[in-house]
Specification:
mainly beta; about 0% helix; about 120 residues; 4-stranded antiparallel sheet
């Protein structure tokens, strides 16, 4: 069975840092595009960062320069390094694996809570 397990979330003070991890199983990890999404209270889920199978990356404007997405294909794990966190980054962060030619073409993790607060 396909499983995406996020970890690394928690409570952090404004200006602090966290590193999220998403460990995948049940997929050929190296060919999937991996992404991080988030959903803040009262808002729709939004794309935060994406990394393709060729290691191309893209970020939401709100996190450019502060967040870094990376992947370790040997460990089937994607990471999100988050720095200089303001309270606006508080959200549930979700891992997503995409490969359009598969059925289903994508999978979601269960999410991990990130709370930025004093």
């Amino acid at each position: 069975q396909v499983q995406l397990v996020e970890s690394g979330g928690g409570l952090v003070q404004p200006g602090g840092s966290l590193r999220l991890s998403c460990a995948a199983s049940g997929i050929i990890f190296s060919i999937f595009t991996m992404g991080w999404y988030r959903q803040a209270p009262g808002k729709k889920r939004e794309l935060v960062a994406i990394i393709t199978s060729g290691d191309s990356t893209d970020y939401a404007d709100s996190v450019k320069g502060r967040f870094t997405i990376s992947r370790d294909n040997a460990q089937s794990t994607v990471y999100l390094q988050m720095n200089s966190l303001p309270s606006e980054d508080t959200a549930v962060y979700y891992c997503k694996a995409d490969y359009p030619r598969w059925s289903p073409p994508y999978y979601w993790g269960q999410g991990t809570q990130v709370t930025v607060s004093s």
